[in-house]
Design a protein that fits this description.
With 430 residues, the protein is α+β, with helices and mostly antiparallel strands. It has twelve helices and 15 strands. The strands form five sheets. It has a five-stranded mixed β-sheet with strand order 4-3-2-1-5. Helix 7 packs across helix 8. The longest helix has 26 residues. The chain is globular.
Length: 430
Amino acid sequence: MTTRLYQEHLSTLIQRYEEAMSYFALDAIVLASGEKEYYFQDDHTFPFHAYSGAQQWLPFTLNAETYIVLQTSQKPTLVWPLRDDFWHAPNPVPSGDWQQSWQIIEARKTDTWFDSLPKKTAWLGPKPMAFSVPCDGLKAYVDYSKAIKTPYEIEATRRASVRAVQGHLAAKEAFLSGASELDIHFAFLQASQQTANQEPYPGIVGLNEHAAVLHYEHKSIESLPTSRTLLIDAGANEQGYASDITRTFTRYDDDFSALVNDLDGMEQKLCQQALSGVAFKDLHHTTIKGIAQLLLDHKICALSVEEQLEKRIPQVFFPHGLGHLLGLQVHDVGGHQIDKNGTLSKPDDSAPFLRLTRTLEENMIITIEPGLYFIPMLIEKMTAEIPCHGCDLNKIQHFMPYGGIRVEDNLVVKNTHTDNLTREAFKKQS
């Protein structure tokens, strides 16, 4: 990552936050990374993830009890935690050219580094200190702009994509060799060069029927004698920025693999349509129609596309949203915001789980992730509640041991094309 990209990124953030201070008549803003939280009645902490608003400012992973102070026309100040601690490894301030743009203060937890701050100082992050003043609307104001990524942020996500793809390819090989879910996950972690705690989200590794559990959270230690399907949804972190990639791999060249191939083709067409000016809600509805066509083409449902849409058959097999904003958080903030004032555009009943309802803009980073699953609970509900559903229950029963399919790419939205970070990374590895 070049110094130039980081400096330009920092200038953009300073401009955004100075505009916010002017808009809300503030003299300063403090961004807090947060503090470690302990398990109940234990001296062991939850894995720590810094508040994204603070992490956005620095080119390395932030630790707990780190603060950033912003004042108009001044260099940003980094308040770095100084600890007298023989239990843990030393925590020095990272070296590098980034320091040229910062004032750096090392402070112990008992130090009152905030005594010199002006009266109108707002706080963003968990557990505000008593010196800060409330500022309703500030968080929404800055969150809205986070959706538009700087070249620095795009490059960090690109690198996170490369590492994740290396992990996916290793996971595929482990699957084909007959490995368990746990060993497949180990293969992913080793190839993507991270520990489980460093993943941007807990990786999903589902074999066979487990591929039909959208957020399958287990990792079986037992190898399966007949593993047909692997659905792996896993990403990597690069300087705080996440990739979020899903692939469905199959062992056999059969009717299920044909369904996987057709969904993959549909997903690529959706990616090409994700241009600036496109309402993401409309793209989701296009996906619903595409799922209906797949169900018809593969003789899973005999009803026409129009009849399926009327009876909401596609949602039985594709119950989640098409995608979301991606950045410092996997489901990045501001997906339902339509302006800096925090006005929300909530998803409607036709797509209740849609995490992105904004119109796409250039340099947003988003995911596109259609799926087609054979989920027993939803199939049973359909047969009980939708008369004349037109679905071939024998064929569905045939597909249930395969679980389901999801294909997910990470895209940079452009005006005339999309920059598909995921496909680009796979192509480089081929």
